[in-house]
Write a structure and sequence with these properties.
By secondary structure, the chain is mainly β. The protein has no helices and 32 strands. The strands form eight sheets. It has a six-stranded mixed beta sheet, with no helix packed on it. The radius of gyration is 27 Å and the shape is elongated.
């Protein structure tokens, strides 16, 4: 007899599908075929990180791309090394996985993504259509191909127990998560939001409510609106200081004038400021004080500037009064 240590007859560059350290097996995903297979390992199996330093199988990550050598007959790993040809994009929400043409855009770069790409959420296979732009992902690939995508932080859902409080409708009021994620309340709404802990507020239509909520992945958090207090809607006087002075100002589609204070109900409103030769600004206007002045300075258009206005869906763009 002779030793089989170091001997192999098969090799592959594959994504790690899962690691079972108790049974000492690793599942791999071959990107070319889209097929999954399982190999065993023991203390004779040599494993190395990207720098070539010996490592434990426990340190491997789901989705990681590795070069593996093994004996096909016994399905036993001889050696494994994290691929030095692969790239990793870590923990980003800058992605668009479904574009309708077999490509994905991640952090502004375009890659090939198809049915062979391994997509994992909570350790289980997922489909690209279920990965929202609010989800954090980690992506692995070689060249311009995405081999695997792992959802590191997913999304849950938020709904209201009722659209009305004491015969007062909440439809049209605003729901806010940590002053960052902002939604306009609609009938029977079911909103998706990144998982995590938030301070939730409902404001507008006379409603004033604040509570702490936890949004869990793939779970629905129902807000009990019986705890929402509704009073006569408050209003605040809002005036503007705008550059250039002849800019046009619109609140919820209605034009207002910078030299005249406007009475506006508490809550969020759509604010649009535009002037010829300047980049139009679309923002959320948050009114929450009896009297306020909003200062806005438009940026001049340049020859190569994108003349389209910024999207109202960008909830990070808002002006407070």
């Amino acid at each position: 007899s002779y030793s089989l240590i170091g001997k192999y007859d098969s090799s592959d560059t594959a994504s790690v599908r899962s690691i079972d350290s108790e049974n000492k097996t690793i599942r791999f995903r071959n990107h070319s075929t889209g097929k999954t297979y399982t190999l065993s390992y023991d203390n004779t199996s040599m494993m190395y990180d990207l720098r070539g330093t010996p490592m434990s199988a426990r340190l491997l990550e789901e989705g990681q791309i590795v070069d593996v050598n093994f004996l096909k007959s016994s399905k036993h790993i001889t050696s494994l090394k994290v691929s030095d040809e692969a790239w990793t994009i870590d923990n980003t929400r800058s992605h668009e996985l479904v574009r309708g043409d077999g490509t994905a855009k991640i952090q502004g770069e375009t890659y090939k993504l198809d049915s062979r790409t391994l997509i994992l959420a909570d350790g289980e296979p997922a489909i690209a259509e279920n990965v929202l732009t609010t989800d954090n992902i980690k992506a692995y690939g070689i060249g311009k191909e995405v081999y695997s995508v792992v959802v590191t932080s997913g999304h849950g859902y938020v709904s209201l127990s009722s659209d009305t409080v004491d015969d007062h409708s909440l439809v049209g009021a605003w729901l806010e998560l940590d002053n960052d994620v902002i939604y306009k309340i609609s009938p029977n709404m079911l909103l998706s939001a990144p998982e995590g802990d938030y301070t939730l507020q409902i404001i507008g239509n006379g409603a004033e409510y604040k509570t702490n909520v936890s949004i869990n992945r793939n779970e629905e958090t129902v807000i009990d609106t019986r705890n929402v207090r509704v009073t006569k809607p408050k209003e605040g006087l809002v005036s503007f200081e705008v550059t250039p002075a002849d800019a046009e100002i619109y609140i919820d589609g209605v034009q207002v004038f910078a030299d005249t204070s406007k009475s506006v109900s508490y809550g969020y409103h759509n604010l649009k400021v535009m002037a010829e030769g300047y980049i139009t600004q679309n923002k959320y206007l948050k009114v929450g004080t009896p009297k306020s002045v909003v200062k806005i300075e438009l940026e001049p258009e340049s020859d190569d500037a994108d003349s389209s206005s910024s999207s109202l869906s960008d909830s990070s763009s808002f002006a407070s009064s």
